[in-house]
Write a structure and sequence with these properties.
It contains 2 helices and 12 strands; from the N terminus they run H-E-E-E-E-E-E-E-E-E-E-E-H-E. It is an alpha+beta fold. It is globular and about 35 Å long. It starts with a helix and ends with a strand.
């Protein structure tokens, strides 16, 4: 009789504990599309900049209800902008906020890399062009809504959307993904010459 009661009480206690764990606010978060993907290893996309020199601006406020969700990498106007990863160009586009921009993707097409405020594109760059890490793709500038006296590269990493436009959806802080300093690939540096329009 006491054994039966002890077993019943034990089961009730276990069920209560499980229910408590299930409702606990300290429970581990459910996996999302961003954290179940392989982690890319990126080069800092500005020549001469090391990972520890990239400012922490991912969560910086922008206006009343928006956060930056990207990093701004300061550099002198005309500094080479490099492909952060192997992949290819998705789109070259000019818009009011970003100015001259490049959308690119990694080789697996899981991520979108957005480069903005460029002074110019590398001559001959076009949508669909293959990219290698370190390849010169453009030059730092202040196009769009960037402050004219503060040239920088606005760089953003997005999870590529499965449905709809391929420009990405959830932003990821790129700073933990940077594993090497920006160094222009010798194979592409020789052909990098400024052109303000898509090639």
């Amino acid at each position: 009789m006491s054994l039966r009661c002890n077993a019943g009480c034990s089961l009730a206690l276990v069920a209560s504990m499980l229910a408590g764990c299930w409702c606990s606010p300290s429970r581990a978060p459910e996996p999302t599309s961003a954290n179940t993907l392989p982690t890319p290893q990126l080069m800092v996309p500005v020549a001469g900049v090391s990972p520890n020199e990239v400012p922490d601006g991912f969560r910086a406020p922008r206006g009343r209800r928006r956060i930056h969700r990207a990093v701004d990498i300061p550099a002198p106007r005309g500094t080479a902008v490099l492909s952060a990863d192997d992949g290819y160009v998705l789109r070259l586009h000019r818009n009011r906020k970003g100015g001259l921009t490049i959308y690119a993707t990694d080789a697996s097409q899981h991520f979108v890399y957005y480069y903005a405020h460029l002074n110019a594109y590398r001559r001959g760059l076009a949508a669909g062009a293959p990219l290698v890490r370190g390849q010169v793709i453009g030059f730092v500038g202040t196009t769009g809504n960037a402050h004219r006296r503060q040239p920088h590269l606005h760089f953003q990493v997005l999870v590529r959307a499965k449905d709809g436009p391929p420009w990405g959806r959830d932003a990821i802080d790129p700073r933990p993904l940077f594993t090497r300093a920006g160094v222009a690939s010798s194979k592409t540096a020789a052909v990098a010459s400024a052109s303000g329009e898509p090639g």
